[in-house]
Amino acid sequence: MASTKLTDVKPRVMVLGGCGFIGRNLVEFLVDNDLVSSVTVVDKVPPQTAWLDRKHQEIFDSQKVTFKSANLIIPASCENAFLDEGDPIDFIINCAGETKYGQTDPVYREGILKLSLNCANLAAKLKVKRYVEISSGHVYQNDKVAHKETAKLEPWTFVAKYKLMVEEELKNVTDLNYVVVRPAIVYGKGDKNGIVPRLVTGAVYRQLGEMMRLLWSKDLAMNTVHVRDVCRAVWLLCQRHADGGATRGQVYNVVDMGDTTQGCISAIVSEIFNINHDFVGSMLSSVYKTDLATVVDEINDKHVAPWAEACANDGIENTPLTPYLDGEMLTNHHLRLDGTKLVSTLNFIHDIPKINKDSVKEILDDYVEMKLFPKSLVL
Ligand SMILES: NC(=O)c1ccc[n+]([C@@H]2O[C@H](COP(=O)([O-])OP(=O)(O)OC[C@H]3O[C@@H](n4cnc5c(N)ncnc54)[C@H](O)[C@@H]3O)[C@@H](O)[C@H]2O)c1
Question: Can you give the pTM of this predicted structure?
Answer without folding.
Answer: 0.95
